Amino acid sequence: MTWYLYILQCEDASLYTGIALNVQQRLARHQAGKGSKYVRSKGQVTLVHMEPHKTKSAALRREREIKSWSRRKKMALIYGPERP
Predict the structure, then answer these.
(1) pTM for this structure?
(2) Is the dihedral of CA 29, 19, 22, 50 positive or negative?
(3) What percent of the chain is modeled with pLDDT above 90?
(4) Domain range for 54
């Protein structure tokens, strides 16, 4: 089973990182206000990054890694190093 790490950009431009087996289904839950409390309070969200992982533990490790990064580093991952 493939797990996915995903990053959402919220209406207020904040970023949310999570993991899911089915990202489209999880995104729909977030958009319906049934996802995490953080996203629920941030308005509409857009999927800006997704990457596959072979195991849940690999996806969780990557999630922890990315959550420790600065916003600048996350934006470079999402949009490339040329974006400020």
Answers:
(1) 0.91
(2) positive
(3) 77
(4) 3-79
